[in-house]
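User: Can you recover a sequence for this backbone? Please restate the input before giving your answer.

Assistant: Of course. Working from this structure:
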């Protein structure tokens, strides 16, 4: 049985994940070595070593998640423990958190810092998938089926929004919405849900107007203005985006060569984080950009395929939810770097420097790989075994993987 399980893993998905992580590690070193010395007075390989440690921890977490049966998350005690832990972390941020980039989003544990809102993304996917998979018989009943989990989703988004981290709150909401759309609801229920959302927006619009000074802060407005007219204030609010354009443009097709970026010499602030793609474009050209985009696209599309093929509604929602999380984050990051959308500070999945982001993405991909493994195992071996045994024993065999 152990050999059959190993054969059932999606090694193409694992391979692409490892390639992106290793490529990201190389680019973190290349993009951060000047910043580490000139800006922070550290050794040139400081961020590389930190990211290497992050990668080792994240890979161990990936292996654990890939081996842990995803169906166990449906067990009440496991799900409640997970959600209580995430909520406790999100609330504790407001009391014990550290402020980074104008948001109180981090908890300093001494040896490392964690960002609870990153873990909330995966927790929301697991929670909504678990709850809605149990409500399939009455999924189109708004009161019994859809409403209770929506309240929880709104609560999580509100806590993250108060950090304030509008970008992450919006990502969590979009991920939750996609999981709901894949939960099995029909178009009539979706239209009712959309109508309720519009009505809620109308009700809260006066509150938004009164609190506009706290919501539309100077920092957020500067990001929007920089997106609309970056060259009007190229040395001010448009500085980061303009230099990103210069990096992408100077890279061309072939790039300047690995380690030869000019914009990382202090022109792009902390280029190892959310603007790392600009350095990739400058140093490796269109080939480096294509490698990252195609790798991320493969993971997203493969995840959606796994979700569509999965016979378990819980597995389907988890697979599509994780795929959408990676796809949304990649789009927001690449859109910000290229000027398609305002800059939000969202890291590029598996590539950007950062421990919490890489850890959560690795955990998420591990869960996705586990869903794929169970699905392939049941297709190859369970179905074959059912066909080989007498019909009177088939009912017992069908319950082999049920939890």
């Amino acid at each position: 049985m152990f050999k059959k399980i190993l054969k059932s893993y999606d090694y193409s998905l694992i391979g692409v994940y490892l390639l992106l992580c290793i490529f990201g590690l190389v680019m973190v070193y290349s993009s951060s070595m000047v910043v580490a010395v000139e800006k922070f007075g550290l050794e040139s390989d400081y961020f590389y070593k930190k990211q290497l440690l992050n990668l080792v921890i994240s890979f161990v977490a990936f292996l654990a998640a890939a081996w842990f049966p995803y169906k166990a998350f449906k067990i009440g005690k496991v799900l409640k423990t997970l959600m209580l832990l995430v909520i406790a972390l999100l609330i504790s941020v407001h009391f014990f958190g550290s402020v980074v980039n104008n948001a109180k989003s981090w908890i300093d544990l001494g040896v490392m810092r964690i960002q609870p809102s990153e873990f909330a993304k995966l927790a929301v996917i697991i929670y909504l998938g678990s709850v809605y998979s149990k409500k399939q018989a009455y999924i189109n009943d708004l009161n019994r089926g859809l409403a209770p989990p929506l309240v929880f989703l709104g609560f999580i988004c509100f806590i993250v929004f108060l950090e304030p981290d509008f970008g992450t709150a919006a990502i969590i909401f979009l991920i939750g919405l996609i999981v709901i759309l894949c939960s099995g609801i029909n178009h009539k229920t979706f239209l009712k849900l959309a109508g309720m959302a519009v009505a809620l927006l109308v009700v809260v619009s006066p509150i938004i107007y009164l609190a506009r000074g706290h919501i539309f802060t100077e920092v957020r407005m500067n990001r929007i203005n920089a997106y609309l007219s970056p060259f009007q204030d190229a040395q001010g609010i448009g500085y980061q985006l303009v230099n990103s354009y210069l990096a992408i443009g100077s890279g061309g097709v072939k790039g300047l060569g690995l380690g030869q970026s000019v914009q990382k010499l202090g022109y792009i602030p902390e280029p190892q984080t959310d603007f790392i793609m600009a350095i990739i474009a400058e140093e490796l050209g269109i080939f480096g950009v294509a490698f990252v985009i195609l790798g991320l696209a493969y993971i997203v599309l493969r995840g959606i395929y796994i979700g569509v093929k999965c016979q378990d509604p819980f597995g389907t929602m988890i697979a599509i939810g994780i795929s959408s999380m990676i796809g949304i984050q990649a789009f927001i990051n690449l859109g910000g770097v290229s000027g398609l959308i305002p800059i939000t500070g969202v890291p590029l999945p598996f590539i950007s420097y950062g421990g919490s982001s890489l850890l959560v993405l690795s955990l998420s991909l591990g869960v996705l790989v586990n869903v794929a493994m169970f699905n392939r195992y049941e297709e190859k071996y369970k179905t074959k075994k059912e066909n080989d045994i007498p019909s009177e024993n088939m009912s017992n065999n069908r319950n082999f993987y049920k939890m």
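That completes the design. Residues 33 and 44 are 4 Å apart (CA to CA).
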